[in-house]
Every structure is written in structure tokens, then in C-alpha cells.
Amino acid sequence: MSGTYLGMPSFPRAARAAVQDRTLRANLRHATHTIRDKRAKAVAELGDWDQLREAGKQIKDRTLRHLDTHLLQLEQAVTAAGGTVHWAADADEANRIVTDLVRATGEREVVKVKSMATQEIGLNEALEAAGIAAYETDLAELIVQLGDDRPSHILVPAIHRNRGEIREIFTRTMSEWGRPAPDGLTDRPADLAEAARLHLRDKFLRAKVGISGANFMVAETGTLVVVESEGNGRMCLTLPETLISVVGIEKTIPTWRDLEVFLQTLPRSSTAERMNPYTSTWTGTADGDGPQTFHLVLLDNGRTGVLADEVGRQTLRCIRCSACLNVCPVYERAGGHAYGSVYPGPIGAILTPQLRGTTSEVDASLPFASTLCGACYEVCPVAIDIPEVLVHLREKVADQGGKGHRLEKAAIKAAGWVLNHPAALTAAERAAAKTRRFHPEKLGGLPLAAAWTNTRDLPVMPAEPFRDWWKRTHNS
């Protein structure tokens, strides 16, 4: 994934620092509560929401079971429509393909539609290393780019910034990237949007190459679909002469009829709208209309590994609506940067470790970045049981071993033996009761147990074991 996240601390350490930032917490609380409340009202308008949710789940599951067939059908349809399909096994291959395609045009700058897949592979950094400037055109992504920042939310990448911070970023850095911010720029949303529009218009009219992702790919026709709220994406998709789309293989759906379900559930779950203001679809190329050259880069980058896991596979249903982030109590307090990935929140806690593995400290910590409250599952429009996958991944992390896990296993094994031998259990209970006055309140002398008692006291041992009390009070 993106090189900008390399070397970040594990989630517990990153979150500990984030929760000390009062401005960040206030920004997140205001934004997530506003979005979640609007979403709830939008969903409540539909009497068949549960049926739509189940339909989306089943469509995705059927597609994933036969993904190889649908991908080949998609390739044939895109090729027949005048496009060119490239297969990328990992991030390095995808970056190399895109960089070579841009170089072949002779251009040294591109405009980009907001895309999680290109962030995942670190495409901007790869293009920069090749001497190619990539300009983000989504308003929130523009804020992040101008601020030399990282996205912290799937839908609203700059959710951690307030209006005053955005005005300061525009005033300070816009001139370094192109058209400067207007003099006397205020923090009114309309003024900030106008400044971004003027800044981006020059780039739209000049760019010869556009790069996008896609929300869906329809296998039967080779059609790609991008949904957005601003119109900047449509400018990127229609004005350049060459369009390159980098899309994860799991974004495939079989038919146009399947798309109908997701065009109802995605906007309500993400932006709380009945329908997206801009839904752009394109099938290959057309003479005199839109880009004259189209390339589709189908990205694996760990997805087939996820597909092979019967429990983890459901993660690939995700349609990137971000509803789970907006209801997560952990995300609301820690923010997106603490997850060390372009995929934050509950979905990031299960997707990132599956795509990257759990060998690094940050990835091994992500399955534990949750209270398992289940709110994420309740709002997911494709019914991903995120808590189930989190527990599944926690088991995998534990099975990797390490000193702490070995001691934990030994302790559980010993406890199991005691619980299976009543006489030993009785003796242990009586010994613990008789020595209760000597029991410490904290376990500071035991490094592996000290963290647990740093924030809680050990329970007080009763003066008499329960079974002795029961015999004494019920056998008389």
C-alpha cells in the first residue's frame, strides 16, 4: 500500500496520541454524527431496505464465487468496446503499468478522480518518482494533497480538518500547485468551494491524461461506473484524451440489473442521498466523444488471498460507503490516521491485515482496534459481519506466536487442567481465599500482566470459596 504509511506506529500507540488532540476529536465527532444521523433518515425512507441489503450481499457473494468467469467476461467486453485490459498482480506491477502508459503519451501531468485503489498502491508517489505530477481533483483529496497530509476517511478524506484549517491550507499552498487562492479568502464553504473550482479548472482544461478508479464494473457490457457528488470526477472522465482506470478485481458485478441494487444502497449509506448527483458510466471508447484511448488495470494486490479465506472473503463485498466508520466509537475518537492505512475504521481493520498480512506490528494490531460492539455490521449495506472477521483475524494473530502468546497459551492450558480436576480446583480456591490479605492490587512486577492492571484493580478475593459457602449454607 501507499508508501506514505510506512513506518507508522501500531494502532494502540497511534490512537493514544490521537485522542489527546481535542480539535481532532471535535472535528470527528461533529462530522460523523452529522453523517450518521442523515444516513439513518435516508435509509428509513425505504420500506424494503433489509431486502435490498440482503440482495446486495447475495449478488456480491455469487460474484465472488465465480469471479474468474466474470473477470474474463469483463475483459472480453472491454476489449470489444475499444479498451485495453491489463492485469496487475501487485502494487509494483500496477504502478509500472500506469507509469509506462502515461509516459507513452508524452505527458508529464495527470488529473485524478478520487480512488482508493490508487491510494492503496501508492500511485501518486510512483508517478512523482517518474517525473509525472498527479493532481487530485476531488475537493477533500485536494485539501489533503495541498496540506501534504494523508486521507483519514474513505468518503471524506479531509474529515479531520475544519473550515479554518482548510482556508489556511488553501491560502498557504495553492500557489505552489497552480492558480493561487483568491485574496481575502474566507472560511465560508461556498468561498472555499469556489477557490477550489477556479484552481482545478485550469488543470481540467490542460490535462491530456486522466486516472480513475471505479465503484463498479459490469461484466456483461464492460461498463465502468463512478459515483460522486461534485462533478470533478466527470470532468476527469470526459475531458482527457487518455483515461486509465485502476480497479480492484472485487468491484466486478455480473449485470446491469445487479447495478440497480447498489445505486439505491450506496448513496444512502455514504452521503445520505437518495441518488448520487453524478453517476458516470462508460463502455470502452467512442469516436468524437470522451477519451479516445481507454486502459483498464485490474488490480489483485492480495485480493485472491482474501478470496481463499472462507470467513474473510466477505470483506470483498465492501462497496466503500464508509457507513461503518461513521458509527464506530473507536474511529470517532482515534481518527483515520491511527489505522496506518488508506482504509481506516472497521472495514480497514479487517481489509488491511488481509491484503498486507499480519507480520508487521501495525497490521497485527488492527484486528484489535475494535470494541466488537457490532454497530458496523448493523449499518453495512452488504451485511459484512465485521466483528466475525475481526475475531477470525485475532485468532490468526494469536496463532503467529511470540513470547506473550506462548505464555498465554501455557496459562490457558494450565487453567484448563485445573478446571478439569475438581480436587485441584478446590485446593486452589481455598489457598487463594486464605492468602487474600497478601494479594496485590496491581501486577506491576509482571510485565505481561501490568498493562491490564494499569487501568483497573484486581478483583477482591472473597473470604470463602463459593462451593464451600454453598455446602455450608445449603447442607445444614
From TrEMBL:
One of its GO terms (molecular function) is 4 iron, 4 sulfur cluster binding. Keywords: 4Fe-4S, Electron transport, Iron, Iron-sulfur, Metal-binding, Repeat, Transport. InterPro entries: 4Fe4S_Fe-S-bd (IPR017896), 4Fe4S_Fe_S_CS (IPR017900), FTHF_cligase-like_sf (IPR024185), Helical_ferredxn (IPR009051), LUD_dom (IPR003741), LutB/LldF (IPR004452), LutB_C (IPR024569), NagB/RpiA_transferase-like (IPR037171). Residues 394-473 form the Lactate utilization protein B C-terminal domain. Pfam families: Fer4_8, LUD_dom, LutB_C. One of its GO terms (biological process) is lactate metabolic process. Residues 73-298 form the LUD domain. It comes from the Bacteria. The keyword Electron transport applies. PROSITE patterns: 4FE4S_FER_1. Residues 316-384 form the 4Fe-4S ferredoxin-type domain. The keyword Iron-sulfur applies. This is L-lactate dehydrogenase complex protein LldF. It comes from Streptomyces candidus.
